[in-house]
Amino acid sequence: MSPNESGGFTGYTLYPQPNGPTSQPWSSDTYTHVLVNADRSWITSTIYHELRHVLAGNFGRVAPYGAHHTGNIDQSTEEAEKEAVKNQLDVMRK
Ligand SMILES: [Zn+2]
After folding, report:
1. pTM for the complete prediction?
2. ∠ CA 78-81-87 to the nearest 5 degrees?
3. CB of 67 closer than 8 Å to CB of 21
């Protein structure tokens, strides 16, 4: 999850229950989904961020590993956002 400074959200990774944490929205089916709020985010950066959650949670099989403040997920999602910005700027410069 990526709450922003105004209390909204930029994106969510929705893990299926019962594998997901109950403190955030979860998938209504057996698949892991990424939800991006296009009104509050730079879409590319948010997608990169959320996909790191998907990977860290092994596609929902071990969703708790994808939670913030777990393992290196905070560093990993931050690096993903930076990578997205770099890639986007590289494309814009061409
Ligand atoms: Zn996050």
Report:
1. 0.83
2. 140
3. yes
Distance 1 CA to ligand 1 centre (A): 4
Q: Cβ distance 15 to 66 under 8 Å?
A: yes
pLDDT digits (tens, 9 = 90+) for 1-48: 555 556 578 899 999 886 555 567 788 888 999 999 888 778 999 999
How far, in Å, is the centroid of ligand 1 from the Cα of 94?
A: 30
The DSSP line for 30-48 is SS-EEEE-TTSS-HHHHHH
Cα 73 to ligand 1 centre (Å): 8
Cβ proximity of 13 and 66 under 8 Å? yes
